[in-house]
Structure formats: C-alpha cells, structure tokens
Design a protein that fits this description.
The structure is a single chain. It contains 9 helices and 16 strands. The strands form 2 sheets. Strands 1-2-3-4-11-5-10-9-8-7-6 form an 11-stranded mixed sheet, sandwiched between helices. It has a 5-stranded mixed sheet with strand order 14-13-12-15-16. The relative contact order is 0.16.
Length: about 400
C-alpha cells in the first residue's frame, strides 16, 4: 500500500506514463488530493514503481434503488517497460482482496482496453451513448413537458452541484461521487480558461437538476456554420428537471450543434422532438465494467420481478467464497443446496446484474450453461428493469 506523498506522486507519474495520451494538468497542480488515503497499490522493480492501481470509496445504485458500498477502481497502469510480466495481475488480485476486506460489495471501472478485465471477474454491465443534436432542426413536440424554473449558476458551484447530484442520482447504475472526484473535476476545469457555463433547475434551496456545458471552436464562433457546445454534465432528479434542462439547451441562440458525450442508451431525448432525426447517436460504447465482490450481498440487495424462481450456480476463481448456488426469486436471493438451473462465471453474472443485458443473449454466446431450458426466460423476467443502467460518471 502506498501512503507517503512521494509514493503517491510516483504512482501519479506511473499511471500517466502508462496511459500515454492523457492531457497535461495545469502547472503547479498538486495530485495528492486526487488519492483517497489507504487505497493506492504499487508494484516495485527494485526501487522503481512500475505499476499502480487505485480506487475510491463510493456507492452504486442497483435495481430497486439500494445503494451498495462500492469501489470505483481507477489509475490502473503498468509502465511500458514492464507489461506482460504479471504486474497487472498482481495488482488486480490484491486490490480485489482489499476491496472485499473493506466490505465493499461491488466494484466498477472504466476500461482503457477491453480485453483485460474479464479475467478478473469484471463484466460489461452498462453502456453510454454519444449523441449530437442539430439544434435548428430540433423542435419540441407540443406534448413535451415544460419543466420548472432554470437559472444560470456559477460554473464553479461545486458544493451545489455535489448536493444536487447526491439527491438526484437515484437511477440504476449511478455511482456516488466522492470529494476526490469533485476535486479532479475542479482542477480539469481550471486547466482550461473556458468559457464554462452552468444552469440549475428548481427554486432556490430546492434544486433538483443541473447542466454544465462549454463551447468549442470559439476562435471562429461568429463565422463558422456549425457553432458547437459540449454538455459536460446533465443531472436530473425528476422528469420535470430533465424537461427543463433539455428545453434550455434547445432554446440557446447562436448554437447550431449540441454534443452530449455521455447519455443513457435509452435516453428519451429523440422522443421529445417533432423530428427524431435531429438527434444523431454517434456511438454506443461500454461504460460500466462491474465486479461482484460479495455475490451473496449483491444478489440479496437487488430487486427481482415475476412469479418464478431460478437457481443460479456461480463460479469465482479469484474470490472462491462467492462460488456456490443461489436461489433467486421476487422474494430475494440466498444460497441454496438445490441443483442449478443455470451456471455462469462471476464476470457473466456481473454483466447481467444491473439489467443491461439479457440472459438469452449470453446463452447464445455460450457464456451460460443451461440445465433447465425454461429457466432462461424466468431469469430474464427476474432480472428485467424499466430502464437500462447508466452511470454518467467518468473516473
């Protein structure tokens, strides 16, 4: 475990070297506040730090609305001189043991490479869609909700944004944003002189949503035919807040294109418009890589649907205490000695856990062993959710 300031600075440099293309931070930035004490691991070759992994204590909203203790895994990197020597494996194994010891039931990460984390029990549990709106074609339907009061705010109102987010982020897949996360955001914004803008939805003292955005290409702002703004964060704790913030965006003068880098895959934005093609989905990519660290707790604290039940057998090589069979129904989930209906590894179960994927798809992909054919449809009903999981938080 790395704890001294010089060790954390070395971890910071190691990670950024491993990532190659990260943008620089402002001169004089102190990265020490980016680390939560007692959560940074390192591997040394002699006296040189060659690999590191880090995490933040957080929460994850699961189907049914419970917030599970959660580790936000980040800053995983190995120097290019020491790759393919087992450094990442040692880090990830040790980190999982540490997370389990802390009593955090789940962990998530954002993967820089897609072929690494499955072997450590992580599965793709949620996705994010990048969308672009051609504002001059985007006309709201007469039936679109109006929303409430929207007012401009100081773009550095971090305390207010954090308060709104904490109460508003109740959707499946949302994660808690600890103080170190907000500190990094503040530093990143300070690195760019802007301009930056923000609005909040709701009356003073009762805000339930906010929007942060900035323009790009400002040098040609009055001559380009495609004046573009980028939405940095859109958080809505109610349908009214969502409608009010979207209406504000679409009413912005001197804007031709609105880029939303991260939206829920099933975001209703196109349905608000008379011409749905005014919204273009540019890309959908994996967002939440989930690891079930404590399978019994994670399964027990999630909600299920339907009248049926299913016995799922789980295999977990890295955390063998999770291995076993679980009886799952609308009444909950618990260990059982009954014979399994379906068998999965822990990474596949993680991919299904938030409701972002269907059991039948994993069956067809050969990732589920079926012992009772009828159990597949039962499992799909049990794990179904109203909306697809989405985090909307990069870390």
């Amino acid at each position: 475990m790395l704890s001294r300031d010089d060790e954390l600075l070395a971890a910071f440099v190691t990670f950024r070297t491993a990532m190659v293309g990260l943008p620089p931070l402002p001169p004089g930035t102190d990265p020490i506040p980016f680390f939560e004490p007692g959560r940074t691991l390192g591997v040394f070759d002699g006296g040189e730090l060659v690999g590191t992994a880090d995490s933040y204590a957080s929460t994850l909203v699961v189907p049914g609305g419970e917030r599970l203790p959660h580790a936000a895994v980040t800053h995983v990197g190995v120097l290019p001189t020491h790759t393919r020597r087992g450094v990442a494996t040692a880090l990830m194994r040790r980190q999982l043991a540490e997370i389990a010891a802390k009593g955090e039931a789940v962990a998530t990460l954002r993967a820089s490479e897609g072929g690494i984390y499955g072997r450590f029990g992580y599965g793709v549990a949620g996705s994010s869609a990048r969308r672009e709106v051609y504002r001059r074609r985007a006309r709201l339907r007469p039936t679109a909700p109006r929303g409430g009061r929207v007012r401009l705010a100081d773009p550095a109102s971090w305390k207010l944004f954090a308060q709104i987010y904490e109460s508003a982020a109740t959707w499946t897949g949302a994660i808690g944003r600890p103080a170190v996360w907000w500190r990094q955001l503040e530093v990143r914004q300070a690195a760019d002189p802007g301009p930056w803008y923000a609005v909040v939805h709701g009356d003073d003292g009762a805000e339930d949503g906010y929007l942060r955005y900035h323009p790009i290409g400002t040098a040609e702002w009055f001559t380009t035919p495609e004046r573009t703004i980028v939405v940095d964060d859109l958080v809505a704790g109610s349908p009214e807040a969502y409608a009010g913030l979207v209406r504000y965006l679409l009413d912005l003068d001197l804007v031709d294109r609105i880029v939303l880098p991260a939206t829920a895959p099933d975001d209703p934005l196109p349905l608000l418009l008379t011409d749905e093609r005014a919204v273009r989905t540019v890309a959908v990519r994996d967002e939440t890589w989930l690891r079930l660290v404590d399978v019994p707790t994670a399964l027990a604290r999630r909600r299920y649907r339907g009248a049926g039940s299913v016995v799922v057998e789980v295999a977990d090589e890295l955390l063998p205490q999770n291995t076993g069979a679980y009886l799952i129904s609308a009444e909950g989930a618990a260990r059982t000695t009954a014979p399994p209906d379906l068998s999965v590894d822990v990474a596949t179960l993680a991919a299904l856990y938030l409701g972002g994927s269907r059991w039948w798809r994993h069956v067809r992909a050969g990732r589920v062993t079926v012992h009772r054919a009828e159990a597949v449809a039962v499992a799909d009903e049990l794990f179904a959710t109203d909306a697809l999981p989405f985090a909307g938080t990069i870390f």
